[in-house]
């Protein structure tokens, strides 16, 4: 075990005992478990999870005991591993996706307009047999026109043998306002903004991590997951949270600058126990 980390734990334990506090009392004030307080005092910071969590716990503990917080955290920073930042998910703008869809429709329409006369010419040149594509019963003409591959969600319906016109660009591209999203779809997402560095842990109802680690000032997180969602946010005073565009007040769920809460499907927030 690292001697420097053990020395930090001994310093915390000595300060606690000097003030006549029991481990249980400290755990209750910090909203931690007894074993987490014991791990800090023994210098076993690996038992607290990632380094960013360990530093947050020790910072709150040192503040409770009246110790020099920055000095202790600086000692820890030289001994604990530095964590890499999570890569925020980058999605193409919705307007770009709409433009791409309209472009594909245009390609399909042009292919049909070019291929249909060629198919008719082939049929007329091939006589009246089956290879010409003429039906003996109905006398109608059928032609197979090759089309470019289109993603499954954008594959067009079968094109009839009538003149086609390329579809118009969506309203969002022509300057008209786009239709407003309904609350039941993307409108009820949760967004986080960071005014300063802060760490987060966000999970869904099955306990799967949706976002985890240290985020820098200026970064954002946007979630469209199934509710309820569970949040633990360090340095909560520098983080803004909104649901469906409406800001959530984190003060009722924040202790020692750490916010613990959940958000339901209707946007209602509720405090979580540590």
Give an overview in words:
With 274 residues, the protein is α+β, with helices and mostly antiparallel strands. It folds into three domains: 3-77, lambda repressor-like DNA-binding domains (434 Repressor (Amino-terminal Domain), Orthogonal Bundle), CATH 1.10.260.40; 94-174, no CATH class; 186-271. The chain contains seven helices and ten strands. It has helices at residues 3-18, 23-30, 34-42, 51-65, 69-77, 94-125, 171-174, and strands at residues 190-194, 198-203, 209-215, 220-223, 229-234, 239-243, 246-248, 254-255, 258-263, 269-271. Strands 2, 3, 5, 8, 9 and 10 form a six-stranded antiparallel sheet that branches. Strands 4-1-6-7 form a four-stranded antiparallel sheet, with no helix packed on it. A hairpin with a 5-residue loop joins β2 and β3. α2 crosses α3 (34-42) and α4 (51-65) packs antiparallel against α5. The chain is elongated and about 100 Å long.
What are the defining features of this structure?
274 residues, alpha+beta, 434 Repressor (Amino-terminal Domain), 3 domains, six-stranded antiparallel sheet, 7 helices, 10 strands, 17% strand
Helix and strand arrangement:
Layout: H1 3-18, H2 23-30, H3 34-42, H4 51-65, H5 69-77, H6 94-125, H7 171-174, E1 190-194, E2 198-203, E3 209-215, E4 220-223, E5 229-234, E6 239-243, E7 246-248, E8 254-255, E9 258-263, E10 269-271
Antiparallel strand pairs: 1-4, 1-6, 2-3, 2-5, 5-9, 6-7, 8-9, 9-10
Helix pairs in contact: 1-3, 2-3, 4-5
């Amino acid at each position: 075990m690292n001697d420097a980390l053990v020395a930090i734990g001994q310093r915390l334990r000595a300060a606690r005992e000097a003030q006549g506090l029991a481990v249980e009392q400290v755990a209750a004030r910090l909203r931690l478990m007894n074993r987490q307080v014991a791990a800090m005092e023994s210098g076993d910071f690996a038992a607290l999870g990632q380094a960013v969590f360990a530093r947050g716990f020790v910072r709150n503990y040192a503040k409770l005991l009246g110790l020099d917080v920055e000095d202790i955290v600086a000692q820890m920073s030289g001994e604990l591993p530095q964590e890499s930042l999570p890569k925020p998910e980058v999605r193409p703008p919705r307007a770009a996706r709409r433009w791409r869809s309209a472009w594909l429709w245009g390609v399909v329409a042009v292919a049909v307009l070019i291929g249909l006369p060629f198919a008719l010419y082939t049929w007329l040149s091939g006589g009246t047999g089956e290879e010409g594509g003429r039906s003996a019963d109905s006398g109608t003409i059928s032609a197979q026109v090759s089309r470019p591959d289109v993603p499954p969600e954008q594959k067009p319906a079968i094109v009839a043998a009538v003149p086609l016109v390329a579809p118009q660009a969506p309203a969002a591209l022509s300057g008209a306002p786009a239709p407003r999203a309904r609350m039941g779809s993307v409108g009820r997402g949760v967004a986080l903004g960071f005014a300063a560095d802060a760490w987060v842990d966000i999970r869904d109802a099955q306990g799967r991590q949706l976002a985890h680690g240290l985020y820098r000032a200026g970064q954002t997180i946007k979630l469209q997951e199934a509710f309820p969602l569970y949040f633990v946010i360090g340095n909560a005073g520098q983080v803004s949270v909104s649901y469906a565009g409406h800001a959530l007040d984190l003060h009722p769920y924040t202790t020692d600058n750490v916010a613990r809460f959940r958000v339901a499907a209707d946007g209602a927030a509720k405090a979580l126990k540590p």
